[in-house]
TrEMBL record:
Chain residue ranges for the region called Disordered: 120-142, 181-343, 528-561
Enzyme Commission (EC) number: 3.1.3.16
GO molecular function: metal ion binding; protein serine/threonine phosphatase activity
Protein name: protein-serine/threonine phosphatase
Chain intervals with Acidic residues compositional bias: 126-139, 261-286, 311-330, 545-561
Keywords for this protein: Hydrolase, Magnesium, Manganese, Metal-binding, Protein phosphatase
Name of the top EC class for this enzyme: hydrolase
PPM-type phosphatase domain boundaries: 23-519
Basic and acidic residues composition-biased segments: 181-190, 222-238, 248-260, 533-544
PANTHER family in UniProt: PROTEIN PHOSPHATASE 1G, PROTEIN PHOSPHATASE 2C
SMART domains: PP2Cc (SM00332)
InterPro entries in UniProt: PP2C, PP2C_BS, PPM-type-like_dom_sf, PPM-type_phosphatase-like_dom
């Protein structure tokens, strides 16, 4: 089931609390995801006359979100600007987000993130060992897998949110590199011997680098470059002056895309040769400068095979060879995420932080979590989702050297443009941290509260992908007006947004964190249960009172007998 569980984890964790001015409830549910990567803060007494609420939606691992939940509030409070009597909230939150993001790449913090990630993994391993595999569930997935096996590769990739062109570019590049490493340089033993197209007749495989041969120079590179014929590349001989003479009387026209691939492959091969110049060859033969160039037939066959598999052949109406090659070069040249190997480098978290200060709401947001206020019956968005395709985000990403794929992913990876962590995308040393392709700089909004403001909600995109801001406000308000308790409303909306299965586009399959902050409503602690109240009453009695109570209890027992 890809990145999903075979059945969702629907246990909901609830936090309830408040102070003299507000009451809150927060709910979190793992859902279909393999791991719970969300974290949050609910601090009703963060500072004098200030409460703090935050949602951190992790990706690539939970460690950045968890570390932010544990450390960001104190980091904010310790800033000198936060201690000022007249606070500059915009600058305070901007400094806090960027400063905290910079802290995430410090060695001691990266070690802490690694420890959190390791602890999470240990906990997951224990959980996996305790969970028994349901054979019936595994069998129930077989029809889906069989159905996907009959679909075109492009359609299957699209189902899981993967751009087919990006995927094929990576596979082609990797396959070509592996074939060069495995096959080495193919030299013709008899360049004039006729043979069938694509056959190995008259040629043999040799190691890439010969013992004792000099390292190739830039002039050697241009002198050895051979044009590749789509039908046969074993009959071409490279002369010392760099021109290629064909020994076929009826030669087919040259394939321009093949020429490009041959040139690029030759350059990559020579880079590998310069790195391996001191290696010994298997047969100890010297490579002749005027000998036949390496065969490119295997590389072209890989190219042709992969295009056939993907359904993206040269005969397709929508296939533009030049455009496809340009996109491939642009994509392959850009950095690609490292697969979650380095916590804080290949993992990150969005952050939506709300401070309730006197009669004001201060919202700082980086990413696609969201805060929304209910004013009368209307939803007032307190934050803006950050997506790579947005104009301001796109300009920054391009200026930092990044790319945006057709499905809105930065360098084929993240589908968001602002977050804490993700320092793999923040390695352009010529620009400041806030201007990197993935930025932690928050949008900061200050909203003055009115008597019409009744509550606000803060949630991760697991909610907002399923419901609009107004739909969420309507959902909560209707239940509050009917006397619903916050905890039950939070639980209900979590279940409402959970997908029945993972057959769709991923909506309803994410982690969910949702909190309601009810304004101008003093928090009233729930009554203690009767057993605990009686125990507390006994503990608070003086020794004399306790003795008298014991005598009374004994007399009552005698009377009953």
């Amino acid at each position: 089931m890809g990145a999903y569980l075979s059945k969702p984890k629907t246990d909901i964790e609830i936090e309830i609390g408040g102070n003299a001015n507000l009451t809150y409830c927060c709910a979190s549910m793992q859902g279909w995801r393999l791991h719970q990567e969300d974290a949050h803060n609910t601090i009703p007494n963060f500072d004098e006359e200030c409460s703090l609420f935050a949602v951190y939606d992790g990706h690539g691992g939970a460690e950045v979100a968890q570390y932010a939940s544990q450390n960001f509030p104190n980091f904010l409070k310790k800033l000198p600007i936060w201690s000022e009597q007249e606070k500059d909230f915009k600058k305070a939150f901007e400094d806090a987000f960027i400063g905290f993001d910079d802290r995430l790449r410090q060695p001691e913090v990266m070690r802490a993130l690694s420890e959190i990630a390791a602890e999470n993994k240990r906990g997951q391993n224990v959980e996996d060992e305790e969970e028994e595999i349901d054979e019936e569930e595994l069998d129930s997935e077989k029809p889906q897998l069989m159905q996907e096996a009959r679909l075109p590769l492009r359609e299957v990739l699209g189902k899981y949110g993967v751009d087919s062109k990006d995927f094929m570019n990576i596979v082609m590049n990797y396959a070509n590199q592996q074939m060069r490493k495995k096959e080495g340089t193919v030299k013709a033993e008899d360049a004039d011997a006729p043979g069938p197209s694509g056959s190995a007749a008259g040629s043999s495989t040799r190691p890439t680098k010969r013992a004792g041969s000099p390292p190739p120079s830039s002039m050697d590179s241009s002198a050895k470059r051979a044009k590749v014929d789509d039908e046969s590349c074993s009959d071409a001989k490279v002369e010392a002056n760099g021109s290629a003479s064909a020994h076929q009387e009826n030669e087919e026209p040259k394939n321009e895309s093949a020429d490009k691939e041959a040139d690029e492959a030759e350059k990559e091969e020579e880079d590998e040769e310069s790195e391996d110049e001191d290696e010994e060859a298997e047969d100890g033969e010297d490579k002749s400068e005027n000998g036949p160039g390496p065969s490119r037939a295997p590389l072209l066959n890989v190219d042709r095979f992969l295009r056939d598999v993907s359904g993206d052949s040269d005969s397709d109406e929508d296939y533009d060879e030049e455009t496809d090659e340009a996109e491939a070069e642009e994509f392959i040249g850009a950095p690609i995420p490292g697969g979650g190997e380095i916590p804080g480098d290949d993992s990150g978290a969005t952050a939506c932080v709300v401070a309730v200060y006197k009669d004001k709401l201060v919202i700082a947001n980086a990413g696609d979590s969201r805060a929304v206020l209910c004013r009368k019956k209307e939803a007032v968005d307190l934050s803006l989702d950050h997506k790579p395709e947005d104009d301001i985000e796109r300009r920054r990403i391009y200026a930092a050297g990044g790319t945006i794929s057709g499905d809105g992913r930065v360098n084929g990876g993240l589908n968001l443009s602002r977050a804490l962590g993700d320092h793999f995308y923040k390695k352009n040393i010529s620009i400041p941290l806030k201007d990197q392709m993935i930025s932690a700089l928050p949008d900061v909004k200050i909203e003055t509260l009115t008597e019409d403001d009744t509550f606000l909600v803060v949630a991760c995109d697991g909610i907002w992908n399923s419901m609009s801001s107004q739909q969420v406000i309507n959902f909560v308000k209707e239940r509050l007006d009917n006397g619903g308790e916050l905890r039950f409303i939070c639980e209900e909306i979590c279940r409402h947004c959970l997908a029945e299965d993972t057959e769709g586009d991923g909506t309803g399959c994410d982690n969910i964190t949702f909190m309601i902050v009810k304004l101008n409503t003093p928090y009233i602690a729930p009554p203690e249960d009767e057993e605990y109240a009686e125990k507390t009453a006994v503990e608070e009695k003086t020794p004399v009172e306790a003795e008298e109570a014991a005598v009374e209890a004994e007399e009552a027992a005698v009377e009953q007998e």
